[in-house]
Design brief:
Blueprint: H1 2-8, H2 11-35, E1 55-58, H3 68-95, H4 102-129, E2 135-137, H5 138-171, H6 176-179, H7 182-208, E3 217-218, H8 225-229, H9 237-269, H10 275-303, H11 314-336, H12 338-357
Parallel strand pairs: 1-3
Antiparallel strand pairs: 1-2
């Protein structure tokens, strides 16, 4: 029967049958490929299937609902304490000549960078706690990430430099003024700032050159690397790898350097004969170590892992190094450091006497 049909087929019909025979398998293969869970490179997608994202929606703390009204006064008060505390430290260091030494110079620079660091994130977060529309434009998100990473990386590098300063002051006191002269101090502070913003520029560029054509909902209260790069619809493995290497350079190397420095510092302190000298030196180092442990510990939890991996604890940990660490800096250094306490009393007494004369 089949043979009879083949014999009766006209040449045109035979050509049609042959064409269907060629097309159908390719169609089946294409349908199979579409059914597979393979990632199609975004460059191969047609333009009509790409949706350009012009703004992001920050969802941080939105799951807390009415509890956000409680968070606002808490975070607002902490922000005021951060601003006032760091302002007091910078003012006292500038006015009191006895604090014009490298250790307090770096402390003043750290206070300035941490004030800017919190200013990049906290005002927007406080606004969003009271706002229904929690959007941030694409450009503003990139700018926020750039400055946040810039000041954050600068802080990490400054803490490493402060560790070296303590090492030079305690282990090599006779050569301290040579090792840490004002030219070296300015050079180290400037290098920390330039390196911080260059690394930030690299990280921000690697994130925002990726295409964003999926969701625009950022599961965070500001534009951080991990929640933003999670929304990218292109292949981000190269960007993630470079960002991870930068994280290792910024976090692991300075922390290792600080640990080695404090190993020499502890061995030197144990050789000090007087108990009062040991206590004073330990008190100076303990304030720095407290900030180092909190800052590096929380930052390492967030950044020393692939950027695509997110955790429900990220927001809580980020609150620690965006609010608690800048809060610890003025409190720890003012409460544990007698020189700063004496200088604050002097500045207050000067202010009181000047008001009386007026």
């Amino acid at each position: 029967m089949i043979q009879e049909q083949k014999k009766t087929c006209s040449p045109l019909t035979s050509l049609s049958c042959f064409t269907l025979y060629l097309i159908l398998p390719q169609t089946n293969i294409r349908m199979k490929n579409q059914s597979c869970d393979k990632i199609i490179p975004w460059e191969q997608l047609p333009p009509e299937n790409l949706t350009t994202i012009t703004e992001f929606l920050l969802l941080g703390f939105s799951n807390l609902h009415e509890k956000q009204l409680v968070l606002f006064p808490v975070f607002f008060c902490l922000y005021l304490v951060i601003l006032s505390g760091n302002f007091i430290i910078v003012t006292v260091i500038c006015l009191e000549h006895s604090l014009h030494i490298p250790m307090y110079f770096f402390l003043g620079v750290l206070s300035v960078t941490e004030t800017c660091y919190t200013f990049v994130v906290l005002p927007k977060m406080l606004t969003n706690l009271f706002s229904v529309r929690r959007t941030i434009s694409f450009t503003s998100c990139a700018v926020q990430m750039f400055f946040f990473l810039g000041f954050g990386v600068t802080n990490c590098l400054l803490l490493g430099v402060m560790g070296y300063d303590h090492y030079a002051a305690i282990c090599h006191p006779l050569c301290y003024l040579i090792l840490m002269n004002w030219r070296v101090c300015r050079l180290l502070a400037g290098t920390c700032g330039m390196s911080g913003f260059l690394i930030s520029l690299l990280g921000t560029t690697l994130v925002f050159i990726l295409p964003f054509c999926n969701s625009n909902k950022v599961e965070h209260y500001f534009c951080d690397i991990s929640p933003v790069i999670h929304l990218a619809c292109g292949d981000s493995y190269i960007s993630e790898f470079i960002i991870f290497i930068c994280g290792v350079l910024v976090l692991v190397f300075p922390l290792t350097f600080i640990c080695i420095s404090y190993g020499f510092i502890v061995s030197t302190i144990l050789k000090i004969p007087s108990a009062e000298g040991k206590q004073k030196t330990f008190s100076t180092c303990a304030s720095h170590l407290t900030v180092v442990v909190v800052h590096y510990g929380c930052a390492s939890f967030v950044y020393l892992r692939p950027s695509r991996i997110t955790s429900s604890k990220d927001q809580l940990v980020t609150v620690t190094y965006t609010i608690i660490t800048p809060l610890l800096n003025p409190m720890v250094y003012s409460l544990r450091n007698k020189d700063v306490q004496i200088a604050i009393r002097k500045v207050i007494s000067w202010g009181g006497s000047s008001l009386k004369t007026i």
